[in-house]
Each structure stands twice: as structure tokens, then as C-alpha cells.
Amino acid sequence: MDTQKHIWQYAIPNEIEKVSIRQNWATALDSNYFKVVVLVTIIVSGAIATFLPYYFSFIQARAGMYITDPVLQLLTPIDVSVFIFSLLYICASICLGFLVHFPKFLLKGAWAYCILTCLRMIVMLFVPLEAPKEMIYLVDPILSLIVYQEVTVTKDLFFSGHTATMAILAFGVPNKFLKAFFVFGTMIMAGLLLKQHVHYTVDVLVAPFFAYVAWKLAEKIEEKVFGEISTVNSEN
Q1: pLDDT by residue (tens digit) across 79-123?
Q2: Using CA atoms, how far apart are residues 89 and 173, in angstroms rounded to an integer?
């Protein structure tokens, strides 16, 4: 078996130095089925991104409830926004830089994030919360332009999107060192969010669970979608 022709299917991390990004993507895009799946993924992601500002406007406008949180009561809130976003976007960039070598893994990661976003919207719909009273507002320099736009959102609480995103990185990267690094980063992210009183403790505790569910659902989709084309280019 020619590893260079099949690496995109099996995404073996220790082969990353033996093949180039161009070779992997060229092999992947030899499959018209793969190209269709990529197009569908882009369309779905775009639809979710378009809908989110309207959804968050609804979430922000409705009344919620406060939670008595003994952990937050022990923490004096300070603004650690710079550390939160530095951690998030540095880790996301590292993960993307690794996964770009493996088209199929990158695609599965995109599915997992879309599923995670949908799960978060569903859960928030049934768990209306008010922001912690001593919350220091967190302004995301990227999502504020794409998702939140003109809306100041403080009620997107249960569950924590930042913590869940870090957890998705840990589940998604097929490299033990990076996986351990992202797990540690997830714990740091949870602590920073609590220190700024951006979330309640329960918001960050349950976030990795939902990330795990999203990743497992993405794996099921992968089995259904790519199971039928596991032998693509096998004769070349």
C-alpha cells in the first residue's frame, strides 16, 4: 500500500513528515464524493453562522434565573480576557496547523464543531440563565464580528462554548502530546472563565461532556459517510 496515496484515509499522525499537505489534499480531492462532502460541510457551517446572531438575540432578550455558586463566591473577579483569547486562538491555530495535513480529520473536526454548536443552542433553549452578578464582560475579538455582531450577549451560559471548544481540540487531534496539551488547556480555560465570572461552575464542568458527545456523533457520521468509499484510489 502506498502511504502517500492513502494517508488521507487513515490519518496516521506519525506519517506527517513523510507526506506533504499538497499530496494529502490532492489524493483526497481525487474523490468526487469527498468534494461533495466538503461542499455540504461548508454550506451547513455557513447556515449555522448566519442563524446564530438571531438566536443569540432571542437568548439575550428573555428572562433567566440566577444560580447560587459557592465557587464564584470564593473568587474575586478580575479581567483575564487577554489570557482567555490568547489560549483559545493559539491552541486552535496549533490544532488547525496539525490537522490541515489530514483532510479527513480536519473535516471530522468541522462536523464535531457544528454538532457542538447545535447542541449548545438546544441546551441553552431549555436552560435560561442570567449572567453571574459580578461578571466582567468578555468580548471575543473574532466572534463578536461574526456571531454576536451588534448584540451584547451575556446569557449564552449553559454550557460554556470556550471550554467545550478547547475540549473538542483535545478529542480531535490525533497526537498524544497535543491531546495532553489541549486537555491541560481546557482546565486552564475553565479556571480563567470562572475567575472572570463569565460562567457558573456547572457551565464549565459539563462542557467537556457535550464536546465528547459531539465528537462521538462526528465519528458516527464519518463511519456512514466514508465507510462506503474506504477503498477510493486503492487500485492506483
Answers
A1: 999 899 999 999 999 999 888 888 888 889 999 999 999 999 999
A2: 15
Give the DSSP letter string of 165-226.
HHHHHHHH---HHHHHHHHHHHHHHHHHHHHTTSS-HHHHHHHHHHHHHHHHHHHHHHHHHH
Task: Please list the alpha-helical segments (H only) found in 138-175.
Answer: 143, 161-172
| Residue 166 identity | M
Q: Which residues contact 174 (CB under 8 A, 6 or more apart)?
A: 11, 13, 102, 105
Is 101 in contact with 173 (CB distance < 8 Å)?
Answer: no
- Cell representation of residue 210: 457535550
Please calculate the CA angle 166-138-52 and round it to the nearest 5 degrees: 70
For the segment 2-23, what is each residue's pLDDT rounded down to a tens digit? 444 433 344 444 445 455 777 8
C-alpha cell at 45: 457551517
Cβ–Cβ under 8 Å, residues 19 and 39: no
Of 155, 169, 152, nearest to 214 (Cα)?
169
Assigned C-alpha cell, 42: 461548508
